[in-house]
Amino acid sequence: MPPLNPVFGHLFVLAKVMAKIPKDAHQHYLPDQLRRTYPEMGPIFYLDAWPFISLTLVVASPSTLAQITTEHTLLKFPAIRDFLYPLTNGRDLVSMDGQEWKMWRSIFNPGFSAKHLMTVVPDIVKETNVFCEVLQKHANRQDVFPMKGLTDNLAMDVIGAVVLDSNLNTQLSTNPMVEALRRQMLWMAFGSEGNPLTQYNPLRPLVHAYNTWHMDRYISPEIDARFAMQKAQAKAQDRTPGKSVIDLALTSYLKQNPEATSTQGIDNHFRKLAISQVKLFLFSGHDTTSSSLCYILYLLSTHPDSLSRLRAEHDGIFGVDPSQAVDLITEDPYLLNKLPYTVAVIKESIRLFPAASTTRSGEPGFSITDSKGRQYPTEGCLVWLISHAIQRDPAYWPQPDEYIPDRWLSAPDDPLYPVKGAWRPFEHGPRACIGLELSMIEMKIVLALVARSFVIEAAYKASDARDGSAAIKTVNGERVYQWGAGQPCENLPCRVKNF
After folding, report:
1. Would the pLDDT of 188 be above 90?
2. How far, in Å, CA of 37 to CA of 325, rounded?
3. Which residues of 73-87 are buried (b: 16+ CB within 10 A; e: fewer)?
4. pLDDT at position 465
5. Tell me: the pLDDT tens digits for 348-404?
6. How many CB atoms sit inside 10 A of residue 371's CB?
7. Which 8-state DSSP code applies to residue 430?
8. Contact between 294 and 150 (Cβ < 8 Å)
9. Which residues contact 31 (CB under 8 A, 6 or more apart)?
10. Which of 64, 353, 373, 474 is the most buried (most CB within 10 A)?
11. Distance from C-alpha of 129 to C-alpha of 135, rounded to nearest angstrom
12. pTM of the model as a whole
């Protein structure tokens, strides 16, 4: 544990560490910065930052994390439910627990299976092709633009296509549901913000209600349309399954609740939960994948040897003409399974810059045990499962701050070979991210269509020159540090040109 002040806890220690990094750096840097400052501390320790946050038990050990995520699954920390409530009213897979969670996870699982997602690859390719068209416009203009804005729109359109079979068209126009979602995100709060008005602004409930009305007004007819289609197919004895996540979820739900098929409209319970879940998928899925894409593209641009190897792999699978990749992947989605170096690039990029971490609630009588047999009671604690700290720890990763995709292609006897359980951007266990396969497929498609057509260059020098501030602008020497909710700082200002 870091040095503890009997009155102020770890506030002085945290202030010392935070002074070394940018003020807007993401909070998940803190455990890793503490490890670098106090290397004797170990990967498990308590952190007392009261009154700003509950007593925290930081866990950054793969073997110990298995005790929390697999052997004895701790419940999500209540602040997560509170944060998501304005979006989902508590009706979502993150907020649910117990049998309710198990039932609804089983209902939504089929739509996110690797086998099913291969059937929607053509839709993802279509949206990625639009992304390439937008990049070409910027290449023609040679302007500086925030890459995160483009990848946000791409990821949003992909989720709309996969989850709802709907064309949100966010990349080329304004979608009222997406705009309402983005406004809602700006008004969501964890409750630990320094400014009390952030949490207790009297306008907040009104804004939440207004945005919710706009989102639900768009999503509800989409779900009704899927239900009407299934009823029509049943009447015509057509057993062709729908391809969207909601289609498959509705099929699973109706099998478990056959009485719902006798009603004129969709079961109201399913409707409310499906609307909430769609909003969660759009919210959480688009932001994390979008940030990951930014870091993948940035790291390739700063490591030309890696980019050359990636392009060579794509030449070998899709042919030397990049324009053929769209048709080839559309006709044979399983070509995406023949890209080992591409997968290595993706994994290494999100090892260095994971988009999120996880918090759980401690339990009375439940302790975790480290490799030396020491026990850490969890009662009354926020248990922080911090992937960033694990994925930058030299105890598990040789040269942890270096970008080395080859570690993912190494043999088990190679020192670079990844330690089991040390890569956790999607977490492990039954409550691991449901969108893992979708995210990986989307990132592979983006690289297959973008890497051989465009050259992307970060443009921080221009923004730094305009700013002129002497403030710290790097973390561990990295200018593209994570801020906000884990996004690249300043949303990755860049230029793009044709390759």
Report:
1. no
2. 47
3. ebbbbebbbbbbebb
4. 77
5. 999 999 988 888 999 999 999 998 899 999 999 999 999 999 999 999 999 999 999
6. 11
7. T
8. no
9. 47, 58, 60, 384, 386, 388, 389
10. 353
11. 10
12. 0.93
